[in-house]
Amino acid sequence: MSIATVNPTTGKTEMIIEPHSGLEVDQRIAEAAAAVHALRRTSFAQRAAWMHAAADILDDQAAGLGELITVEMGKPIAQSVAEVVKSAKAMRFYADNSATFLADAPLDDPTQVGASQAWTRYEPLGVVLAVMPWNYPLWQVIRFAAPALMAGNAGLLKHASNVPQAALFLDTLFERAGFPKGSFRTLLIGGAEVGAVLADARVAAVTLTGSEPAGRSVAAIAGDHVKKAVLELGGSDPFIVMPSADVAAAAATAVRARISNNGQSCIAGKRFIVHDAVYDEFAAAFTAQMAALVVGDPLLPETQVGPLATEPGRQELIELVDDARAAGATILTGGTVPGAPGWFYAPTVIADLPDNARLVQEEAFGPVASLYRARDREDALRIANQTTFGLSSSVWTNDPEDESVFISGLDAGAVFVNGMTVSYQELPFGGIKRSGFGRELAAVGQREFCNLKTIWKA
């Protein structure tokens, strides 16, 4: 198993890191289990002070951490720095709101259950294992770690093997800020070793963000051991444009949605479903803007699209586009591999996709957009719901009836009207169908890894 930083811009190996031995993994689980007992003796105010201190560390090191992220996974530097800042903001959000989110809730009239008092209380589950991807190497982890630690849980992180420097930074972050030793620990292990960690009696629950196969595997192990799981898996989000929409704004936003994070985001518009009345206008604007994007070294401020994070990831994208081309789809722009070193792929727009093309059902994890022409509202809704995914969605319309129909009819965990899907710490995040189950962020995300205890007093 290789745990290494391989710079996707150059293809060169920057650092190789030795995985943890079985003894080291056991020691780290033991430290996390001990930290749970220490955390339960602390107050929300104390944990909040530590969480604010951890957020300060991120803000103080934002520039350096941004460069680290870009070198490890290739996103444009401005986006990497923004990820660090966003992570710090979420940490402060949970520091300031956890006491409210997890406050005891008394029953208004306890006499109706024969009690003098009755209430519910949220308590931590214990050690929670997080299996996290490389595409947002800080944000994906922090949006789990901040609410989990503020609730009094401890965390174990199995990060993607191509972002080990980010994983090692996170291993020490919370302890540096004052949290008890072991409150958050990184496990440098391969995917094959996750099952044994999850099966360990000291681990209470698991959260995974990643592929559907990985989610299936983790969910099966969690189920076998009767442990709580939250899964955020793939997405092929529809981006619907109706006749009443501001087409120019929709096209510009569609470009940002598709190329954010070099196109490697689960919650991004991937399938652009456009009403026949405005299809030609949208397609022309969208294609022209995608073709004009600056592709290059992500450390340069003018770069808009960097390389894909891994060589296998680029190869999967190549195969999806080649399959669509062979099936008869039209490549409006892109569909090529630049000759430069690194794992680049040209921003691509594909139209006229036949039903048998893999792109119709599979997720394109890179700067590749699929265009669909819809006859009417019902046809747009049919196309939007035809995949097995149901993460998020975006609808562009100024017609109240359109808005109502799509909000109610879309099979998705979220609907954004006249805007691009974004994760906010104030709003729950997660999907349905094969995009997973459970929620992250907001109050409900924090409560996923708490025991809701009922107290009845005579």
Automatic annotation (TrEMBL):
Q: Which domain of life is it from?
A: Bacteria
Spell out the InterPro entries in the cross-references.
Ald_DH/histidinol_DH (IPR016161), Ald_DH_C (IPR016163), Ald_DH_N (IPR016162), Aldehyde_DH_dom (IPR015590), GABD/Sad-like (IPR047110)
Q: Where is the Aldehyde dehydrogenase domain?
A: 3-455
Name one matching Pfam family: Aldedh
- Database matches in SUPFAM superfamilies: ALDH-like (SSF53720)
GO MF annotation list: succinate-semialdehyde dehydrogenase (NAD+) activity
Keyword line: NADP, Oxidoreductase
What family is this protein classified in? Belongs to the aldehyde dehydrogenase family.
Protein name in the entry:
Aldehyde dehydrogenase family protein
